[in-house]
Amino acid sequence: MSEIETLRRQTETLQNQFAEVSAMVSTLMRQAEEQRQHYDAEIAKKDAKIEEQAKEILKLKQNVAWFVRKFYGKVSEKVRALDKNQLTIPFPEWQDEPTAEIEKMREEVDKELEKQREELKSTQAKKPRSTRSAIKNPSYPVVTVVVEPDGVDMSNYKIVGHEYTEKVEIVPGKVYVLRIDRPVYGLVNGQVLVPEGQKGMMIAKLPPMIIGQGMFGNNAIVEFMLDKFAYYMPYYRQHQKYLNLGVDLKKTTLEGCFKPMAELLKPLAEELSKAILNETGYVQCDGTTIPVVNKEKHKACKEYIWTLRAPLLHLVRYNYLYEGSRGGKVGEELLGNYKDYLQTDDYEVYRSLCSLIRILL
């Protein structure tokens, strides 16, 4: 009886151990399945990444091939995209792209471009900053204009010095230096009381100038404006024109003369618009695009120019809007409170103004 009990206990022990081993095996199998799923997911990700990289490599090869054809191929031959249904010529050397040769040429081109960039950087870094200097030419005649103070009894003063302001003036075919002489006056007798509203030292004010501290006088700036807008002369042609007269003008110097002049002409342009819109009841208007070179983008950008015309008065104004548009807001600002007859095209912006304008033709 004792042996049977012993066997029974041993059997129970073995059964418990078998259950533990079975649970352990199940756990290991579950962990193994989880690891397999994880590895499958990782492999799928890597396969997708490899496929994406293969597409990118193919795209880069195509770009390099285009680059080689563009810069090293014959200009007269135009390479067009092949039709998918086009049969391929069965020549072995045409079947595969010369990858090694293309890669070698790509490396050479990259090295050359990098070398050119470094040379450009070094050139720009070494370039000294140019400063504007006064034009000195002994062949120019000097015309001196003496400007005396106004409303002052000069009998109480004597000249104690001179204040000179020199401007380069240009008349057609002639360049001269305009020297404005402003005598500096001091009291003849230092013990005499200075009259009320006057000073012990007197000097006349400078005449009105377009650019007060600039190099060029009013006549010269007007000549630049006429050359640019009346005679359609670009900056480089103006530079050559005045270089022949002995005046070495920089492009930046010319550009700096136009903005102050344009600011002075702005009220005149506004009065011209008022005359066009208010003097007659019939106005023609149109807006169009114009290509303008953008220095930052290094290409021509699309800008807008609007035209206002009063046929009965023979008045025209061209309103150029930098970074403008052909939107309704611009049309409203340009036409203002105009409510009479307007002749224009069928552009939808003008239709939106029908409620403001009497009749739209």
Record the SSE blueprint.
Elements: H1 2-72, H2 99-126, E1 142-146, E2 157-171, E3 174-187, E4 201-202, H3 218-230, H4 235-244, H5 251-278, E5 282-294, E6 299-310, E7 315-321, H6 328-335, E8 341-343, H7 348-352, E9 359-360
Parallel strand pairs: 1-3, 5-8, 8-9
Antiparallel strand pairs: 2-3, 3-4, 5-6, 6-7
Helix pairs in contact: 1-2, 3-5
Q: Any overview of this molecule?
A:
The chain is of the alpha/beta class and 361 residues long. Helices cover 45% and strands 20% of the residues. The chain is built from 7 helices and 9 strands, in the order H-H-E-E-E-E-H-H-H-E-E-E-H-E-H-E. The chain has helices spanning 2-72, 99-126, 218-230, 235-244, 251-278, 328-335, 348-352; strands spanning 142-146, 157-171, 174-187, 201-202, 282-294, 299-310, 315-321, 341-343, 359-360. The strands form 2 sheets. It has a 5-stranded mixed beta sheet. Strands 1, 2, 3 and 4 form a 4-stranded mixed beta sheet that branches. Helix 1 (2-72) crosses helix 2 and helix 3 (218-230) crosses helix 5. The relative contact order is 0.05. Mean pLDDT is 80; it is low at 91-95.
Brief write-up:
The protein is of the alpha/beta class and 361 residues long.
Q: How many H/I helices?
A: 7
Can you list the strand order of the major beta sheet? 7-6-5-8-9
- Counting helices, strands and paired strands, the structural category is alpha/beta
Unreliable segments of 5+ consecutive residues: 91-95
DSSP summary, beta strand count:
9
Largest β sheet strand count, sense and barrel closure: 5 strands, mixed
| Helix-strand pattern | HHEEEEHHHEEEHEHE
How helical, in percent, are the residues? 40-55%
Strand content: 15-25%
Averaged pLDDT, please?
80
Supply Rg.
43 Å
The shape is elongated
Give the N-terminus to C-terminus distance in angstroms.
125 Å
